Amino acid sequence: MKYQPLSSSLYIKNREKFCYKLAESSVAIFNSNDIMPTNADGTMRFRQNNDLFYLTGIDQEETILLVAPDCPNPTMREVLFLRETNEHIAIWEGHKYTKEEAEATSGIKNIQWLSNFDQVFNTVMALSCNVYLNTNEHLRAGVVVETQDARFIKECKEKFPLHNYHRSAPIMHELRGVKEKEEIDQLQIACDITEKGFRRILSFVKPGVTEYEIEAEYLHEFVRNRSNGFAYQPIIASGASACVLHYIENHKECLAGELLLMDVGAEYGNYNADMTRTIPVSGRFTERQRAVYDAVLRVQKEAANILRIGTNIQDYHKEVGLIMQSELVGLGLIDQTDIKNQDPAWPAYKKYFMHGTSHHLGLDVHDVGTMHGPIKPGMVFTVEPGIYIQEEGLGVRLENNIVIKEEKGYFDLMRNIPIEAEEIEDLMNS
Q1: Which residue, 122, 195, 331, 358, could crosslink 381 as a Cys pair with Cβ 3.0–4.6 Å?
Q2: Are residues 421 and 360 part of one domain?
Q3: What are the transmembrane regions (predicted)?
Q4: Rounded Cα gap, residues 335 and 74, in angstroms
């Protein structure tokens, strides 16, 4: 792995928090993700199941975690199962965790090979009444491929039909929504790497460069700073393409006078940054571009200030919508008649700002966590308003990542990444 792993104390603490939420006489199982195929004998790069990673720090395929905090046999209260390596695997795939390394990473003392899983699991199941199984229950998940978790659920219920089955996902969402200090530190590194990429391209962008060249500049800077690369498929959208929210073709030439919207973030240690900046290709904003840019920046700053402890995310989004509504009136994009005649289910401002302002951030870019309950200290959110004017071929979005603090306020993980129009122009023309 490129990144510096965190201390096992984090994963010990995370497992303790999870086990505290379980019913008495319970066992919980977490499976690693599959290695996904491409074509022929090709595979995608492995990405660990984030729940398993959160509880163990183990970043390797074919891994299973078993926790049974009330098991009468104390050696079976935490067991980590690994793929047994050999000389052939070492030659073809490289080094895999030894038992000693896995213990040092996870803090779990009972490390066994996968071949022993059935025997241990059968014993623990005989001593347990409740079973917690894991699934992807993200509100926006579109699961079309059968996962290892899904296969295990079917096998487990067929073999042990009389146990009481429960969902681990609600517990994991609650826990992962609030970050520990060590997690925030990893997110800060991901944001710092993202800053380096952004500063690099400010001196690179000019009329005539292509979106894919800019993408390559980011990737170069990310990887050379121990990132695995992009946290998500980057959006490098010049001109009218900025009005396509999920534009990922990144194939056009950047033209003089256009704006360039870049939604990119580095991944570090499986934690993700999520930044959006919009810059003028020619190095200077036009008067109209600057007016729209400043409007978005004002909304971004106000939104960050009202994203605070106790706030409900749904109410927050409505409040930000009213702030945006005022800015759009000031820009002449909507008027009071539009507002008076608007559909309450789709307010007038949605024509130019049609997406939400904030989402959880962490091991997933759109991280798990409540989107309906009150905001708690330690939660990490994006703040990303935008204005998209298709008829003018002009789109502006600005996005920072913030941590909700114990006291009133927030901590901006992207505080050092240029966002003021004057600073961006100065850096592009220096």
Answers
A1: 358
A2: yes
A3: none
A4: 68
Count of C-beta atoms within a 10 Å radius of residue 95: 9
Asked if residue 306 lies in contact with residue 298, where contact means CB atoms within 8 angstroms, the answer is no
Using DSSP's 3-state secondary structure scheme, residue 253 falls into strand
**Phi first, then psi: what are they for 271, rounded to 5°?**
-100, 150
Same domain, 346 and 403: yes
φ, ψ dihedrals at 202, nearest 5°? -60, -30
Alpha carbons 167 and 135: distance in angstroms, whole number: 8
29 and 85 fall within a common domain:
yes
Smallest Cα–Cα separation from 201: which of 211, 214, 210? Answer: 214
| Distance from C-alpha of 25 to C-alpha of 19, rounded to nearest angstrom | 11
Asked whether residue 1 is domain-assigned, the answer is: no
Q: Which amino acid is at 163?
A: H
Q: What are phi and psi of 172, to 5 degrees?
A: -65, -40
Number of Cβ atoms within 10 Å of the Cβ of 50: 19
In tens digits, what is the pLDDT along the chain, a chain of 430 residues? 899 999 999 999 999 999 999 999 999 999 999 999 999 999 999 999 999 999 999 999 999 999 999 999 999 999 999 999 888 888 888 889 999 999 999 999 999 999 999 999 999 999 999 999 999 988 888 888 899 999 999 999 999 999 999 999 999 999 999 999 999 999 999 999 999 999 999 999 999 999 999 999 999 999 999 999 999 999 999 999 999 999 999 999 999 999 999 999 999 999 999 999 999 999 999 999 999 999 999 999 999 999 999 999 999 999 999 999 999 999 999 999 999 999 999 999 999 999 999 999 999 999 999 888 899 999 999 999 999 999 999 999 999 999 999 877 899 999 999 999 999 999 999 9
Radius of gyration of the chain (CA): 24
Verify that 134 and 197 share a domain, yes or no.
no
Question: In this structure, what token pair is assigned to residue 148?
Answer: 């290892």
The Cα-based distances of 424 to 132, 371, 427 in angstroms read 50, 33, 5
Does residue 3 fall inside a structural domain?
Answer: no
Integer Cα distance of 219 and 211 in angstroms: 13
Instruction: For residue 224, give its domain range.
Output: 181-428
